[in-house]
Amino acid sequence: MSERIKHIGIFTSGGDSPGMNAALHGAAKAALANGMRISGVSRGYEGMIDGDFISLNEKDLQRTVHKGGTILKTARSDRFRKEEGRKAALKNLEKKGIDALIAIGGDGTFRGMLAFSELCTLPFIGIPGTIDNDLAGTDYTLGFDTAVNTAIENIDKIRDTAESHNRVFLVEVMGRDSGYIAIHSGLGTGADGILIPESSEDFNRLLEKIRHYHSQEELIVIVSEGDELGVGPVASKIREVNPSVDLRISILGHVQRGGHPSAFDRMLGIRLGVASVKALLEGQKNVMAGIVNNSLTLTPFEKVVKQHQVDAELQELLTLFYLK
Ligand SMILES: Nc1ncnc2c1ncn2[C@@H]1O[C@H](COP(=O)(O)OP(=O)(O)O)[C@@H](O)[C@H]1O
Ligand SMILES: O=P(O)(O)OC[C@H]1O[C@](O)(COP(=O)(O)O)[C@@H](O)[C@@H]1O
């Protein structure tokens, strides 16, 4: 065990995602079992700058594993982007006696950690928490599985009404720069088209389908929010190409971020929470704990960048289902 680390600070940052509470529980359990204290920082970097700490009781955390959101609350912080904000945060950590940090968030959060590491030598470990699943260094991020299940449940319902009216539905799902939620929820609901930021071929193919559409059936098209056109312009183009289409738009929005975490996200949270403490004990710093091929992996923050390409197998599926 590392002699140096006595008191870990842990926080959630960026968009909340189901499974974050399980990760907090995993980390607290491992920290206490190894004789370390662990404190929560409320509202991510914002709380760090304000000195807003929360004592964590491992038994209480055990009762939050099934809950969506994050009990520590989260935030996006413009103040932390400035050196002044980071200096204030460091002062508060020193005052509190925190000598290591675990951050649960997305690539923005890890970029923040890298900027912070220019000011201090504290070891930082990351846990991938974003519904978008757009990080290198892990096959799955916390909350992605739950978000896809929520999207699927809602798209199935939309299909019922679409089918009854022979309507075309554009369903917008989340994913700021990434089509992972769109691909999984689209293939999982038998959607007739999927538009994602990583590809533009799919739109032309969809327009061909719409041109020959004769309103005897429903069509469901999933549009990732990060798609270069966006759901509004896609709708206009469809109406232009085939004015007879009875079209509706449904934006699933933040419903995808909430709700009880799936079994997968609960286990992922617990595994990564424990792994993050283990990494600190091994003397690691500035790395993210992830799962690759079902094995725990540590990846330097520098390499945890946005994935702008869906992986080859998914691309092949998209081609088979929507481009042939
Ligand atoms: N280059 C950066 N320097 C300092 N802080 C950053 C940087 N990039 C992001 N952050 C901090 O990380 C926070 C979370 O990032 P954001 O992109 O909103 O979410 P996520 O971590 O889910 O990707 C930001 O609000 C900001 O405070
Ligand atoms: O909470 P906000 O600011 O509305 O952010 C919405 C964005 O957050 C996400 O839900 C998750 O993004 P993060 O990587 O920041 O967690 C995106 O899919 C979406 O574009």
UniProtKB/TrEMBL annotation:
GO biological process annotation, one example: fructose 1,6-bisphosphate metabolic process
PROSITE patterns in the cross-refs: PHOSPHOFRUCTOKINASE (PS00433)
Pathway(s) it belongs to: Carbohydrate degradation; glycolysis; D-glyceraldehyde 3-phosphate and glycerone phosphate from D-glucose: step 3/4
Gene Ontology terms for molecular function: 6-phosphofructokinase activity; AMP binding; ATP binding; fructose-6-phosphate binding; identical protein binding; metal ion binding; monosaccharide binding
Main localization category: cytoplasm
Record: residues binding ATP: 15, 76-77, 106-109
Identification of the protein by name: ATP-dependent 6-phosphofructokinase
Record-listed E.C. numbers: 2.7.1.11
Catalytic activity line of the entry: beta-D-fructose 6-phosphate + ATP = beta-D-fructose 1,6-bisphosphate + ADP + H(+)
Entry keywords, A to Z: Allosteric enzyme, ATP-binding, Cytoplasm, Glycolysis, Kinase, Magnesium, Metal-binding, Nucleotide-binding, Transferase
